[in-house]
Structure formats: C-alpha cells, structure tokens
Amino acid sequence: MRLRTLLILYLGLTSCDSSLPKFEKKSSHRTGINFNNSLSYTEEFNPYTYRNFFNGGGVALGDINNDGLIDIYFTGNIVNNALYLNKGDWNFEDITESAGVLCENNWSTGATFVDINNDGLLDIYVAKSGKPGGPNRNNELFINQGDLTFKESSKEYGLDIEGLSVHAAFFDYDGDLDLDAYVLNNSIRSVGTYDLIEGQRNIPSEDGNKLLENIDNNFENVSSMKGIFSSNIGFGLGITLSDFNGDLWPDIFISNDFFEKDYLYLNDNGQGFSEASSTYFDALSMGSMGADVADMDNDLIPDLIVTEMLPETLSRQKNKQVYESYDKFTLAGSKGYHKQYPRNVFQRNLGNTFYEISRQLDISATEWSWAALLFDMDNDGFKDIYISNGIYKDLLDRDYLTYQANDEKISQILRSETEDITDLIDIMPSKPVKNAVFRNNGDYTFNDKREDWGLDEPSFSNGSAYGDLDNDGDLDLVVNNVNSEAFIFENHSDKENNNFLSIVLNGSPPNINAIGAKVTLHLANGQKMMSEQFPSRGFQSSVPYRLHFGLGKQERIDSVEVFWPDRKRSVINNVNINRNLKINYSEIVSESMDPKPTFIKDNYISDNFIDFEHNENYYIDFDSERLLPQMFSNEGPCISNYDLNGDGIQDFFICGAKGQTSNLFISSDSKYRKVSEPFEIHKGSEDVESIFFDVDNDGDKDLYVASGGKAFSKLSRTLNDRLYINESGKFVYSPSSLNFNKFFSTGAIAVGDINKDGFLDLFIGERFDVDTYGISGSVLILVNNKDGTFETTYPRELQNIGMITDISFTDINSDNNGDLIIVGEWMPILTYLNNNSNWELVSNKIGIREINGIWNTIESSDLNNDGIPDFVIGNMGQNGFYKPGMKLFLNDFDNNGKSEAVFTYKLGKKDFPIHDRDELIKQLPELKKKLLYYEDYSNQSIKDIFSDEKLSSSIVKYIDETRSIVLLSNGYLSYSKLSLPNEIQYSSVHAIKIKDLNNDGFEDLILGGNQFLVKPQYGAFDASKGWIVYGSKSSNINFSKLKPLNISGEIRDFSIVNSNNKSDSLILVTGISNSKIITKNVK
After folding, report:
1. Fewer C-beta within 10 Å: the chain N or C terminus?
2. 863-889: string of b/e by CB count within 10 Å (b at 16+)?
3. What is the pTM of this model?
4. CA 435 → CA 391, 432, 676, 940, distances in Å?
5. CB 94 within 8 A of CB 36
6. Rounded distance, CA 783 to CA 770, Å?
7. Hey, how many other C-beta atoms are within 10 angstroms of the C-beta on 141?
C-alpha cells in the first residue's frame, strides 16, 4: 500500500512538471526578488513635463563576485535601483544598500556591467535622466571593491555626464586595446522646436550623444572629430553594437525616437565613423526604441531588429496610432530624415546591404515595444525574438487626444491656477499588453509562442535581459516592469534534451572580457553559428559576458573559431558540448586577420552606357482619390531594343514620363547617339510601354508607343498611343494608323499574327480609369490592314475584364494559334484559347483557378523543357499591406456623382476598412456623425458603416494571392502554381526577363520591382535590389538558388543584350523610375 501511494505521488509530480510551460514565472517569495519600478506622477513631474516619464527602467546581468552565478541589477526611476546577489537554486539576496549602488533620489535609466579598471571584477555604469539638478544627478560609475561593495568613481574617469542619458556601451572602437564608450543621450529640447529643419544633426551640442575615447583611463569626448552626431535632435533610445559589414571593426547602430532618423555608424578601421543609414537601409522605424542584433539564419552575418509603437491589431491601430500625412513624409525625406515608417523593422543583412522584411515575418506590429532581444530561447540552434511591451498610459489614444487632451485643453490647464494636470493624466487610458515571443523556425519564418511558452501575462514591461541564472544550460529571462514586480522566468528548455555550449572569453588586457569578439561554431554536420560579445543590448539593459549557443540535437562540434577584438583569429578543435567553455587569449595561438568590408556600393558598368535619366512628373494620386493606399502614376520607364542600323549592336528606345521626351539611342562608334525626333512633340504623354515590330512587312522594325498614367483628364488626347513608321532608318509619326473610339490609359501591349495573314496585329490592354481606380478596362485587338493602318476591334469576351497590366500572346495548346494570358490588378489570371478569333476562357479548366492578385507583369518561356510555355508572373509579394482576403468596394458612397474605392481586410468573417478614421471622413464627410469616436470606428466592419443597399450595388474586387509565382505546365492544358522563393516576396515584381545565364540548360529568372509611392501608414514596397534566380532540376524544376542584383530603386523594365567587348558576356539594361538607366554584367 505504501509503495502504491509513493508511485501515485511520483506520477502526480512528474505530471505536474511536464505541464510546466517552457518559461516558468518565479514568485518573489521563491526568489527574494521583489523589485517594483513604481511610478507616480505629480503636478510638477509627469508625462507632460517630462516626455520620457513612462519609459521605465533597465536590467543588467553579470557575475559581480566571480562565483559562477549571474547577479541582477535593476534600475528604477522614482524608486531606488536594486542589486540582487545570486546565491544559487533561485535564491537571491538584495545587497543594494550595503553595496552602495542605490542611486537614491535619482532617475536611473540604463545600466551595464563593465570591468573598467581591468582588475577582473565587474563594475557598474548607470545612466541618469529625469529632473535636472540634485545630488548625484550625473551618470555614476560604481567600482567593484571585491567585497560586495562598490565605490562611485565616475568623475575620476570622466564619465560623470549629466543630461538625459539613456544607456551606455563600452567597446574598443579604435583598436588600441582599451575600452572606449558611447553614451546615449536624449535631447533636452522639446520635439517640435526642431521639427524637420534641414541640417540640424550637423550642429553639435554639449547635451548630445557622446563617443568617449579612453586616454590613460580618462574618457574624453571625441564625437565631432570621429564622425558622431551629437546634436539636439538626437532622441536616442537604443544603442546596438555589431560588426555589420564583416571587417572585424565594431560598428554602431543608434535608434532615434521621433522625427530624427536612426544612425548606422560604420567603423573606418578605427579612425572614426561614417554614418550610412540612408545608404544601406531603405526603411527605418519612425519612433525607434530599443534594438538588438544577431545572426538569425546561421549565415554568419548579423541581422538587426528595431522596435516601435505600432499596435498589434487593426482595431487598436485605428484608435491608438497617429499617422503622418504623405506630404509630411515626403518633406521629411527631402530634408534628409530618410524614409521612416510607424512599425518595427527587421533588417535582414545579406552581406552587401539590408532588406527590411518585418511585414513578411509578421513581426512589424507588437504594441508599444521598448526592446527586442534575439536569443535562442529553446536551444534548437536558432535565435528567437522576445519583445517587451506596454506603456502605462496610452499617450496616443486618439479619443483622449481629440476630446480630452487636445493642445488647447492642455494649454488652458497649464495656465490655470485651479485645474490640475494630474486630473487629465488620471483619465488617460491604461491597459497592460502581452509581451511578444516569436520562435525562429530556421527558414526565416516565425511563430507566435507567447502563450505556449508561458510568456503571455499582460504587463507594462520595459528593459529586459537574458542569462543562464541557474547554470542548467538554457537562457532565463529577467524583465523590468512599471508599477508591478519584475518578471523572473526560469527556462525549462533543459528538459527537452537539446544540447548547448556556453563560452566565456578571457581577452587580452585591458579588454579582459573580450568585448567585441566574434565566435563561430563549426558543427559536425557542416552547419555554422555565430555570436558577438557586446553586452549592452535591447532597451537600457545588458546581458552577461557569456556567449550561449543552443545546438538542438547536434552532438559534435568540429571547431570553435574566435575572432578577438584585436582582429586576431584562434581555433579550438574537438570541443565537448553541454558545458561552459573558457577560452583564454593568452593560452592559444592566434593569427592576424584583415578582412575587407562586405557592404558594397553600386557595381554598375559604363560599357554601353545610355545617357538617359527618367524624371517622373510631380503628380499626387491621393489629391484626387484620398482613399488610395498607393499611387499608380509611376509605371515607367519602359525599354525596347533592336539592332536598327544593322551594325550588330542593339539600339534602344527609352520611354519618358509626362513632360519628358522619350528617346531613341542608336549605336555609333562604340557610343550611343540620342535621337529625340519625332518623339519630342509627344512629351506631354506618359509613355509606359513600347515595342519594335514590322508593321508593313518591309523588312525593318517600326515602333509602337503606349501612353498611360493617371495624371490626365479622361478626355486628354495625350493618352493616345502612337505608331512610328521606320522609313529608311528614320522614324515618322503616323497619326492615321490608329483609330480609337475613346481615350484611355494603356497598361499592356502584345504583338502577334492573330489571323495568319502574315501581318502582325496588336493587343492593347486598358490599365484603369484615370479618374476612378477600380473600374475595369478591356482588351482591344488592332487588326493589321496591311497598309500601315489598323482596324480596332472590341471582342465581347475581352470587355471589362480588369485593370490590365500585361498580356502574353503565346500558343499554350499546340494548335499553332496564339492564345491570350492576361493579368492585372485585383483580378484573376485570365487565360483565353484562340478558337479562330473566338476567345474561350479556360483558366479554371487548366488549373489556373481564380488566383486573384495585384499582378504587375507576365513573361513566358519553356522552363521545364516540355515544349509548352510556362509563365512567370509578378505580384506585390508578402512584405507589404496587401493580404489575401483583402477587398476593394467601389461605389458612389456619398452620392456626389463620383465613385470611390474603400479597401478592407478580412478578419474572421467580416470585412473591416483599412483606412484611418480621419482619412475616411475627409473623403466621406457625412460619416463624421456616425464615426464620432475612434473607439467606435475601430470595431466597425464595412457592413456597420454602409447600408446593405449601398454594399449590394458596389463593385467588389478581392485578392487571394500576393506572391509572385510560376505557372508550370504539367502537360496538355494543365498548369500548377509554384511560388517563387521567399526572398522574391520581399517586394513587388514589375519586371521579368528569362535567360539561361549559366549555360546549364535551364532558364534563369531576372526579377525587379519596388513601389515607393505608398502612404506611410502602409509602407513602401522597397526590399528588393533585383534578383537573379537560377533554375535547376531535381525531380521537378525549381528556383531555389538566387543572388541579388544590387540595383536600387523602382525597377520597371529589363533588357538583356550581348556585350560589345566579350562575345560570351551579357549586359542587363535596367529602367528605373526617377533614375538613370543602369547597365550591369550578368554573365
């Protein structure tokens, strides 16, 4: 009986243990840690008198007494700081007062452990902020005395900085082996004082950021002479160090709040820094907070995440987020503040530059997010993402700002002797939110794991840090909260039997903790992993001097490679796992390294250079259609090429924008001669497509030019397409050749002999209605009359089929008749068989079921060598605001005689407008009474806003696919859909060329795109530099190997030609909106 009772008890206990989440919250009774960053405001000191009032405190982890146990230091704002000594077995002792590190009656922010005096003991540096004045208001440096007490010595080292300091990082920037420092300061000036004035960051300020060089243990400010901005517009909240460009010199990333852009300082071999954020980042966070950096895909290259304030759900975004207008966004860019968006950013580093892909990863919106930490939370070998969230008072609640705390009301209270500002703060909304946790699947996809892993308790969390507090081989988590006890989470990943390796580096004095070192693990299966020794991370926090590697089920490490801060390399072989490995610089052999930076600038060529720069006319689509999320008036330039003069060299026609002459470029003496006649008289048109073909069968190529865009009246003759006849090498405009019964914006052209009379006919696709986006257009067929003129026909089957962007005329059923594949925006891929000029829609029959997308372009080729054409089709990708289930409702919603498009997201079974309330009301003013409060609007579907009658009479379009794809033939009239690689989905695809570049017998793809003209709340499509995707075949054709083209801008067209210098070399000619023509070797 006793044995049975013990067995039942044992089974009960093991069952309880197995039900524990991966992260177990430890109670203050269990740990002895009861730190609470309690914040209370007063009439004199509150969020209105100090803007960073609710920013919270930080966490620093480090072993202060060298007993092998990690200790914890919390910073408090109004409350004192706290130092907890780790006694083992999750027991901690508060030794703050006896240690002398209280920072009493001071507003502390960030903290970091550093051995400043090279005695083998960790010291503490604390950043201060808050009210000016008072005792010990300066940043403090506590020197470890070796007996669990500390001596404040900041003045002795020149580190007694006073201002609005946020955090500090110590590192050897100049390669002289001692530790220098960067102190991050927030501007003491109000934000509006400096708003968007050009050149301000070049004006240094004594209160700004500081790069401090260690000269004989005294830290001296060298900011200006070393290229560091220290101006009053530096509203820095995060400092992140890494070797971003692979040259073994530490670089700096500074995340700035408010309107100032973030800074990327690339180290110039220890001589100083070059700020390069606008060069290597296409998108930045607007209100940047904390940041972290790590190698997220084990390619040995560091990636970067920066957090912002975008609420997680569409409902909360409508009520808690304020957006900039497109005009202000554009102004900021023109004044040097770059492109900033209200969202988190994840900058994937591919070695040559960064690609911002947060939206594709679904991590762009995580609430008011103070910091991200990138670390392996489950020891599977890939670093995961933890984000601390929450603001104690919703400072951006739209109803509060509009009706209770508008500028007039605040000014009135501040002037009043009877009204209290605290009353206004009391009614400010306050709601805790969950912190965010994303598990890295190892393939650049992430899953939300906060609930599964026990990290879903709502809170107002700020600084956080990770470290193995119990030495069990996994990383535990410590989080500082506002107005509640700090979170201490024990990680139970050790119970999952994943392996690990923890590394402690003993560096060369005086940098004995080897800050700036890089460690690479070479596993037995060929996999590699990399981590860097920079303890200051996240928001106002720092992690221990241990590099932790989760290994998953890997049981062998071939070698450990260490790149030391002095740029020397050491290798340790035959390393055992599941242990703490200590590596001493002085005990191993090392060799000097001098790698070159991996970041590159444009590697274009001047060979066959075409002197043409596309200049898009200034036209704002949003001025005429306020609800559009993006513009559609930047669709050029197009490029057409043919050897017109028979010299064996390709000549080019380049389309110009409205107000710009399109030009012909004829090769002459190894250069190109620009020909503007007769095209100059038509420069009022926006030329978007062109094609060389022989209209009259006289043996030379004539030229068809299509005009489009939206910057025109629908009655404007400048919308007319044009035909130029080649007369002995001179092009002559032929106004009588074309005959249309209306003006329209052209989106697509194709050429083919439809009636087999030996003369080429034309297919013309209508792009859109220039006044109203969403109205479908038709395909016109221009039948060649054999005399240089065309008869315009309007096939019934091809009328009102969509907003057409491209047409492919090719034979898909091997009957020697060309068939039509038509693509466009908010429409399916339409496939029509040519049955003696009767057009049979067969999309569903051949496996291309209604795949509705925002299709931009289509290109055909036989990719799988089966004799049947396949198709590559460009879409908008997965890294933008377009989502499957999105709809467009088109109607005259305000009965004013003009229709407008309302865009929605599908959430559950309902469709919710994506628009900001103010934006919707400006377009439809009668909705103001119905949508009086932002909170009401945030939860209303389109059915709640508009009547059933109005919705039932609306034109409704939808999309269910945003990826760029391949349609691959399976045999006779059968196709299957193949998604292009994830990297291609980083942005839109507008240009495609197909060519076997490596002579392996399989066609390769060249793809380019981007669309920058998007409202800032939705964000541009900008994460592409063009791609080459190599075709290969295992059991089926696939496109998995790819490389970037490194071409910046909105790519609109490609042309591939042979090089004049090398017979086996190919030149890619690239047309880019608002940019010069780019030429580049691709073979």
Report:
1. N
2. bbeeebbbbbbbbbbbbbbbeeebbbb
3. 0.96
4. 12, 9, 61, 26
5. no
6. 26
7. 25
- Beta-strand pair 857-861/870-874: antiparallel
Per-residue pLDDT of 362-411, as tens digits, reads 999 999 999 899 999 999 999 999 999 999 999 999 999 999 888 788 77
Instruction: Round to whole Å and give the CA distance between 4 and 71.
Output: 43
Percentage of the residues of the chain whose pLDDT score is greater than 70: 97
Q: What are phi and psi of 585, to 5 degrees?
A: -55, -40
Give the C-alpha separation, 47 to 1035, whole Å.
63
Nearest to 968 by CA among 875, 855, 867, 870: 870
CA distance 161 to 170: 15
Q: How far does CA 95 lie from the centroid of its chain?
A: 43
What confidence tens digit (pLDDT) does each residue in 679-723 have? 999 999 999 999 999 999 999 999 999 999 999 999 999 999 999
The answer to whether 761 touches 784, Cβ cutoff 8 Å, is yes
Measured CA to CA, the distance from residue 112 to residue 181 in angstroms comes to 11
C-alpha 97/C-alpha 82 separation (Å) is: 8
What pLDDT sits at residue 837? 75
Angle of CA points 725, 729, 731, to nearest 5°:
35
H or E element in which residue 212 lies? strand 210-215
Let me know: does 1066 contact 1060? Beta carbons within 8 Å: no
**Mapped to the 3 state alphabet, what secondary structure does 114-150 carry?**
ECCCCCCCCEEEEEEECCCCCCCCCCEEEEECCCCCE
193 — pLDDT class (breaks 50, 70, 90): low
Q: How far apart are the first and last CA of the chain?
A: 81
Q: Where are the beta strands (DSSP E) in 972-1075?
A: 974-979, 989-995, 1004-1009, 1027-1033, 1037-1044, 1050-1058, 1066-1073
Q: Is the dihedral of CA 530, 533, 534, 538 positive or negative?
A: positive
Rounded Cα–Cα distance for residues 755 and 908 (Å): 50
Helices within 248-394 (DSSP H only)? 277-280, 314-320, 326-334, 358-361
Cβ proximity of 436 and 363 under 8 Å: yes
Q: In this structure, are residues 850 and 942 in contact, taking their beta carbons and an 8 Å threshold?
A: no
Torsional class of 800: left (φ above 0), alpha (ψ -120 to 50), beta (otherwise): left
Q: Is the model's pLDDT at 190 over the cut of 50?
A: yes
pLDDT in tens, 948-970: 999 999 999 999 999 999 999 99
Phi, psi (degrees; rounded to nearest 5) at 967:
-100, 110
The pairing of beta strand 284-285 with beta strand 340-341: parallel
Q: In degrees, to the nearest 5, what angle opens at C-alpha 584 toward C-alphas 581 and 590?
A: 115
CA distance 531 to 549: 8
d(CA 394, CA 367): 11
Structure tokens at 826: 């908010």
> Cβ distance 515 to 565 under 8 Å?
yes
- What average pLDDT is seen over the chain? 94
